[in-house]
Design a protein that fits this description.
6-stranded parallel beta sheet, DNA-binding, Rossmann fold, 2 domains
Amino acid sequence: MIRVLLAEDQAMVRGALSALLNLESDIEVLGSAPDGEAAWREIQRLKPDVLVTDIEMPGLTGLELAQRIQRHELPIKVIIVTTFARPGFLRRALEAGVSGYLLKDAPAENLAEALRMVHRGGRSIDPQLALDAWSEADPLNDRERQVLRLAGEGQSASDIATQLHLSHGTVRNYLSEAIGKLGVGNRIEAYRLARQKGWL
C-alpha cells in the first residue's frame, strides 16, 4: 500500500485528488493539508511514503517543503502537481530532491501511475519540461529570491528586513543584486520576470 499525504490550498482540488486516489486499490490517502506549515506537521505525524503537493501555497511553498524533507533526510518521496509549466520551477524542484513533477492538466490516471513509479524508486517528470529546464539557468541565489518574492508581494525594504532579521541596507543590496542579474530597471520588473521564468 502506498501511503499518501496531499498538500493543496484549493479545497476543491484537494478533495478531487483525494477522491481520485482513494479509488486505487494500492493507494491510501492518509490525510490532506491546506498549506505548507500544516503539511509539515502532518508529515511528522502521519509519516507518509509520498507527499503530493502544489507549489504555491500559504506559509511554506511545495518547493520549500521538499527542501525541508531533503534537509531532514526523511524517507518521503515528493511529487509536485502544479499548473506551472515553468522550467525554472522544475529545475529547483529537482535540486530539492523531488521525484515527480506533473501538470494539473495531465490525464488523471497519470498521477496514480506517477505515485507507483516514484514509490518504486523511479521518477515521473513531464519530458518536454525536463528538456526545457536545462535551457536557461536561474541567476538568483536563495536569499535574493526570498527578498524579491516579498518585495513583489508589496512589502517595503523595512518590512522585509524585520521579517528576515536582516539590516535595511542588506535587503536593499539583495534587491539591487537581483535587479542587476535580471537586467531590468526596478524590483517590480525583476519580480515579474523571475515569476515568469519560474525562479520565484
